[in-house]
Amino acid sequence: MSDSHPNLIRWICLGAIVLIVLNAARTWPEVGSLLFRSDNDDLMRLVQVRDWLGGQDWFDTRQYRVLPPEGISMHWSRYVDAGIATVLVPASWLLPMPQAELLTLTVWPSLLACLMVLLIGLGTNRLFGPMAALGALVVFLTWGKLRGEFTPPRIDHHGIQMLCVTAAFYLAILHGRRRLFGALAGLATALSLAVGLEMLTILALIPGFVALRHAFDQPGSGDWLLGFVAALAVGAPLLMAGQTAPGAWGVMYCDALAPPVLALAATGIAATLVPVLAGRLLRGPAVRLVTMAAFVGLGLWLSAPLLTPCLGGPYADVPPEVRALIESRMIEALSAFELIRLMPDMLARSLLPPLVIMACSLVAAALLWSRLEAGQRSALLLGVLIAFAGLAVAILQIRATTLMVPAVPLLGGFLVHAFLQIPRTSPWRLPAVLMLAAATPTAVEEGVSYVLARAAPTPTLTAQTQSAPTRSPATCRNPAAMAELASLPTSTLFSALNLGTTILAYTPHSVAAAPYHRSPEAFWNGIAALESEADMRLALARSRADYLVLCPGDAAKPYAAVLLGGTLPDWLTDVTGDRRELRVYQVDHARLAGSDGQ
User: Fold this and answer.
1) For residues 290, 294, 296 and 298, what is the CA-based torsion angle, rounded to 10 degrees?
2) What is the C-alpha separation between 536 and 126, in angstroms, rounded?
3) DSSP H helical ranges for 421-508
């Protein structure tokens, strides 16, 4: 392993950070318009931070402006809000709040990106040298799926989760003070779990890999595990207690750090800790592996009452009809097989870059295996395991591509290391250069664009596909449309699913629809209610919405198309007036209650 050329790696990391800062400066003037086209979670996170800074209790994360007055439960962590506030509050001392928010939307993701640069650059340098670190950073900065999570105005929780799991990954594969590294990895794991459970698979795989290394008497693995389990055992409960009201500590949430996840963590802690503490008695890989398996089985059996209700995942408590909407209408929840048919370009851009890097790195590792040091081999093994685990889950749901994040930059850096092992006089050097260039995410994504441009036109999207989230002006996600809505009396507005968070962020109104699974009603309202008159009547009656808001793009939904065509029931009155971006209909609840079907 190499920690040489300390000045070179500093310059490499500094150069990457300068690029991030320059991108932030370039983005700053347009970050406001980018936010309109950004993800729903970025808008909702901004609303959550505003509410908290405006006086909402730390432990109260309900969004009261969705389906008021009760609101909807949100499973998001206040720790992310606190991090964003460390930028927003000082900025508000110097700037008006709207400008302070725009600055925060630029600075926060850029700050996380800089921390990722330091982790990836310094970690890869320790393993394979500075040029490999440069290659790893090129992957980080050019893979759209990864880079996009750290680009303004991305302020949702995924950036922190990726940062934590990347830290745990490098802390597991680098030589150093093993107990300290294990403890830091345990704290990073606990924080990632407190923020969200999306990275749970990889967070379990990392200590599991170190436990396997301990079973085979790999030096330092036992000390790492001791530090890890001690930090996780203390950190996870404390972080849960720090963001969950005491009265809710016993609630069996399946989508947040709660007793079921703590039980699962306790099982892992026992299974890995016993072989370490009883190392003198449990000799040999077979005995230790059997012991770990036995404790895993015992732990899962004892915690089954807590874990069984969560086997259905975060949507376990969601009604089947709403779950079907989530799994078929949300782009991020679609499988690779569905995306091949519906959005092949998105699938290719998300999965092809890591696939190409994985394939090339496997070939390079096979050719160089005998020349690699033990630590380098261990790093590659864990990297490949993480990449394949992420790929397996991503085939089922494309959003799981983020599980591959810790490993792909390292594998890209290893390709550079492998190239440097080829003698300059070798005839293989030129083909290797071409392969290395072709394996960069930019080359892969540009290749995808070229192939798709020359291919036959994509078949017309179905109504189901068209109802997936879009960022076009037809969705009314623009300043003019929000200004038109803000002129209405403060009310509850009924809209399509992907307009709800925009209304919350840019107007004083409440909404009846938002894409969050803890409220099946809010989710159902934004999709199914626009497809038939009966469902619309039911949704308006239950939500008590004052106005129905429709945008040009809503014409893809059957009943919304009828309304936009001018055929109105007697319980809707067109009050659009001189508004041009959207149409607004006032709901007459007295007539609605007396209409047929009630």
Assistant:
1) 180
2) 60
3) 429-438, 441-454, 463-466, 479-486, 500-506
Give the list of residues 6+ apart from residue 205 with CB closer than 8 angstroms, or none: 382, 385, 386, 389
> Which two structure tokens, joined as six digits, stand for 491?
């009310």
Q: How many CA atoms lie within 13 A of 244 on its CB side?
A: 21
pTM here is 0.92
Give backbone dihedrals phi and psi of 459, rounded to 5 degrees, phi first.
-55, 150
Question: What Cα–Cα distance (Å) separates residue 505 from each residue in 59, 150, 319, 440, 471?
Answer: 21, 21, 28, 37, 16
Query: Each residue of 70-124: pLDDT tens digit?
Result: 999 998 999 999 999 999 999 999 999 999 999 999 999 999 999 999 999 999 9
- What is d(CA 598, CA 590) in angstroms, rounded to the nearest whole number? 11
Mean pLDDT of 525-530: 90
Of the candidates 245, 225, 464, 196, which has an alpha carbon nearest to the alpha carbon of residue 338?
A: 464
Pairing of strands 492-494, 547-550: parallel
Task: Look up residue 457 and give its two tokens.
Answer: 């036109």
Give the three-state DSSP class for 63.
Answer: strand
Dihedral of CA atoms 180, 182, 187, 188 in degrees, nearest 10, equals 120
User: What is the C-alpha separation between 506 and 499, in angstroms, rounded?
Assistant: 11
- CA atoms of 31 and 46, how far apart (whole Å): 13
Helix (H) and strand (E) counts in the chain: 28, 5
